[in-house]
Amino acid sequence: MSDITFNIEKDFGTIGDGKWMRHLTLTSWNNDDAKYDLRPWNEDMTKCSKGLTFTKDELYELKDLLDEILDSEDEGDFEEPEE
Predict the structure, then answer these.
(1) pTM for the whole structure
(2) Sign of the C-alpha dihedral, residues 63, 52, 30, 18?
(3) Are 8 and 45 in contact (CB under 8 A)?
(4) What is the pLDDT of residues 17-59, one digit of tens each?
């Protein structure tokens, strides 16, 4: 079994908080073309957990979906449940 290699070309920022932060990066895995990657990384970004990888086209599709959700007049899905 071979080791997985990665090269983070750009770190765009983080989502959430905690010891393992989710970073949106442009990362090359196993010397392949770099893709947009969203996954938790440790503090010094030497270890990561499972995440999601997107091509630029897929990232645009995700943006369109998020825009639809966030711009929707029916924001009831985002309300906290009543106790």
Answers:
(1) 0.79
(2) positive
(3) yes
(4) 888 999 999 999 999 999 999 999 999 999 999 999 999 999 9
